[in-house]
Amino acid sequence: MVEARQQQSRSQVGGTAAHPGRFRALLGLSLGYFMVLLDTTVLSVAEPDIAQSLGASVGGLQWVVNGYTITLAAFLLSAGAVADRLGAHRVFRYGIAGFGFLSLLTAFAPSVGLLIALRALLGVAAALCIPSSMAMITRLYPEPAARSRALAAWTAISGVGLASGPIIGGALVAFAGWRAVFTVNVPIAVVVLVLVTGSRFAAPMTKRRIDVAAQLLAGVTLALLSGSLIAFGGRDIALATALGVAAIVVAAALVVVERRSDSPVFAPQILRARSVLAGLIAGAAVNFVLTGAIFALPLLLIQSLNLTPIQIGLFLLPLTIPCALNPLLTGQIVARYGPRPPIIGGLALLSVGSAVLTVAVADHFPTLLTAMGLAVTGFGVSFTLPALISAVLSAAPAGTAGSVGGILNAVRQMGATIGVAVMGALIAAQQTDAGGTAAMLTAAIIAALGCCAYVLLTRARRSGLPG
After folding, report:
1. Which of 19, 206, 270, 301 is 20 to 30 A from residue 290's alpha carbon, by CA?
2. How far apart are CA 177 and CA 173, in angstroms?
3. CB atoms inside a 10 Å sphere around CB 4
4. CA pair distance 313, 12, nearest whole angstrom
5. Cα separation, 337 vs 355, whole angstroms
6. Beta-strand (E) ranges in 178-251?
7. In angstroms, rounded to a whole number, what is the distance separating the alpha carbons of residues 435 and 425?
8. Where does the Major facilitator superfamily (MFS) profile domain lie (predicted)?
């Protein structure tokens, strides 16, 4: 009897190791993340149709993409704290419901301006979903090995969004136009809400404060920086300079606010760990390359090969398929050897793949070379991200899983936003294959720098320094 009570008590600590409905919950959480990622990749093949339908320029398309990632990054900074304070299960459901409803509205956007505004609101809803889902997984799977496998499954299922996005998007655009790519989110949101309904999925709440001022300043900083890069790509040097200076001023104000805050967004106890800092740098590098490439490649393929949306989706499959299939293997590697080897190896592959794509773009996309570059890049992403999530969550101080998850994903989206802005600006500024070559070369350099930073920071930690 005493042993049975002890087992029951252990099952209740941290989120029930023997939770009877946790597979159902994991499926729902994974589908929610799938929907968020699908909304990113499904839009890539719709870019030409949006440009033609609404008269959007390259800069306008950058804002359609970055309107989503800017608000996603900004609100992710506090969404983790919101999940900790209000309960991850409740925040996740609100986010999913809002995402489905806003997706339906977005499908009827009559202009580029309104499309950008609705995409920005979708980013807010997505921000509520991601750290809350990570916090729920941490609670449902408190055992490190089981959590690594659960996170790998979460990443694999959601990675199908990356793999299927270009194909689904290409088919929808071909048969019904770009507006159809948003309606697909509505039935997915309904299924997710059904899977995670029930009091048994409830998570504890804390009394963490939310620093609204810091969140807003971070969002404004990122928006100004993106605007500066986009203006530079459009050769409006005066506007680019003004926005860049404004970004620096607002960033300085953010630093002041953070230092004076009783509940800073970038909590010192979280960032003090070298493993967390290394993970944030690596996460930003991965999303810079991945999102920047997914934005840039369709534009370059249209320019060089005049492909249709479905053909673009098929062309990108070597990049996206590994993101769906490989995370399960990565989870096994992490469970056995730890997260460091796949993170370092994945970042190295990401750099090599981007370098191969640099040569492919310069040579007008030879099929074999392009497929090789895309596949190596895809395997780099799929080795890095599941291991990265596991490493950062494992290093999170007690009671901060939601906050750490929010910061990690916010930094990743900052990397994505800057990736789209930088690579898009290089393409827009030159309007030739040289712009695409410069964009992919920049991605290769960023991935290499991220790999070096991760090696150095984690090596210092492993040699005995505090971290």
Report:
1. 270
2. 4
3. 8
4. 45
5. 28
6. none
7. 9
8. 25-462
Two structure tokens written together for 270: 């979280």
Per the listing, tokens 């440009």 go with 51
C-alpha span between 135 and 120 (Å, rounded): 24
Q: What is the pTM of this model?
A: 0.76
Please write the tens of the pLDDT for every residue from 269-286.
666 667 788 888 999 999
Exposed e or buried b for every residue in 31-41, given b needs 16+ CB within 10 A?
Answer: bbbbbbbbbbb
Classify each residue of 56-69 as buried b or exposed e, where b means 16 or more C-beta atoms within 10 Å of its C-beta: bebbbbbbbbbbbb
How far is it, in rounded angstroms, from Cα 95 to Cα 178? Answer: 24
Residue 25 — pLDDT band, cuts 50, 70, 90?
Answer: confident
Residue with token string 């101080």: 397
Q: End-to-end CA distance of the chain, in Å? A: 42
Residue 436 — pLDDT band, cuts 50, 70, 90?
confident
Tokens of 264: 């800073």
- Side chain identity at residue 425, one-letter code: A
Provide the token pair at 310: 């479905």
The contacts of residue 222 (CB under 8 Å, 6+ apart) are: 70, 73, 74, 414, 417
